[in-house]
Amino acid sequence: MKLLLTGAGGSASSNVLDALKLSTLDLDIIGVDSSQRMIALSAASQKFLVPHATDEEYLSDIIKLVEKYSIQVIHVQPDSEVNVLSANREKLNASIFLPDQDAIDLARDKEKFAVAMRKAAVPVPISGDGGGKLEFIQVCSELLRSVPKLWVRARTGAGSRASLPVTSTSQAVNWIEWWIQEKNLAWKDFQVSEFLPGQEYALQTVWQNGLLISAEARVRISYLYGFLTPSGQSSTPSVARTTSNPEVYEVGLNAIRALSKNPHGIFCVDMKTDFDEKIKVTEINAGRFFTTSNFFAHAGVNMPEMSVRGALGETLSPIGVGTLGDDLFWIRMVDMGFKLVHRDEIESYARVRDF
Questions:
Q1: Residue 240: beta bridge partners?
Q2: Max mean pLDDT range (60-64, 160-164, 219-223)
């Protein structure tokens, strides 16, 4: 079976491919990417360049590939491509395992998403945005009366795009003005919210026609090059651990059900704890996996495989929620790959001082 994998030159798509290689599916994976250099890293059997998803020729190139290679399933990974292909899914002569368009649109806008979650009684950080500089200053000033630190970030995009923790309105203004001047963003492109200092959780799920098929969560322990960022994190972990914390699952699943009346496809929920250790939802990736989707696959819960089978129209059987316990670690480092490690192995290493 031929599968088209978008964003193939990136680590997130590479990890999806790694998970699919663990499956029993007989796949011929064709990869596409907009980077002429990064696509060289992909392990796809065939690789092609496409324009960025915002280019008007992107969609026609994808359709041409689908037709030329008789592609049966498309797995979309980058946010921008999820948005374009979802909005044009009826033009694709291939199956694509995506949530409804309304859910994708709402999840992409961080501030509109936060407002919708509050209306559904899902705990989220207090937040706001402004149409212009004066409105943004007012929002920041009001929030700083309630919380000691704020989190400024772009309203759309992945990887903590344009984000910074700030403790004053002037810091927030200076940060945003740099992005406006250097990166052509605008005041309306930013959101400011309560900074959450506690543990960070990530819940990855697969749904089929409103039925929850699988849900597994991890807690991010340390980050790839987090020491180089002002916040101490970089959105993708170097070390993560499975968690069975029931509150993580309750809050995360409630958020997904508030986002979509009939969840279908992939939903990944980011959560952090506030100063009072209360879990709050920060965002949902609707339609794509987290970067480390192969963590759970190596542990025996292969959600990328489930997503492909779902796209093919197979009826998926629910396999449970939080089935992996609390003792599995996923350890990653640039140029060193990744490894699934049990707590017992980590605790078995002797210290030199104990010799």
A1: 220, 330
A2: 60-64
Query: What b/e string do you get for 138-160 counting C-beta neighbours within 10 Å, with b at 16 or more?
Result: ebbeebbeebeebbbbbbbebeb
Question: Is the backbone of residue 27 left (phi > 0), alpha (psi -120 to 50) or beta?
Answer: beta
Non-local (6+) Cβ contacts of 257 within 8 A are: 263
Q: Which domains does the chain have, with CATH numbers?
A: 2-96 (3.40.50.20), 126-194 (3.30.1490.20), 200-348 (3.30.470.20)
Strands 164-166 and 320-321: unpaired
Give which of 218, 216, 208 is closest to 323, Cα–Cα. 216
CA distance 123 to 78: 27
Check: CB of residue 46 under 8 Å from CB of residue 17.
Answer: no
Range list of H helices, 184-300:
246-259, 294-298
Largest Cα–Cα distance in the chain?
A: 66
How confident is the model over 284-295, as pLDDT tens digits?
999 999 999 999
What residue type is 299 in one-letter code?
A
DSSP 38: G
For residue 97, count CB atoms less than 10 angstroms from its CB and return exposed for 0-12, middle for 13-18, buried for 19 or more: buried
The answer to whether the beta carbons of residues 10 and 33 sit under 8 Å apart is yes
What six digits make up the tokens of 334?
A: 């640039």
Q: Is 319 exposed, middle or buried (0-12, 13-18, 19+ CB in 10 A)?
A: middle
pLDDT tens per residue across span 138-163: 999 999 999 999 999 888 876 678 88
**Long-range interactions of 311-314: CB distance < 8 A, separation 24+:** 311/73, 311/74, 311/75, 311/95, 311/96, 311/97, 312/1, 312/72, 312/73, 312/95, 313/95
Look at the pTM and tell me if it is higher than 0.90. yes
- Residues 10, 77: Cα–Cα separation, whole Å: 9
Supply φ then ψ for residue 69, to 5 degrees.
Answer: -105, 10
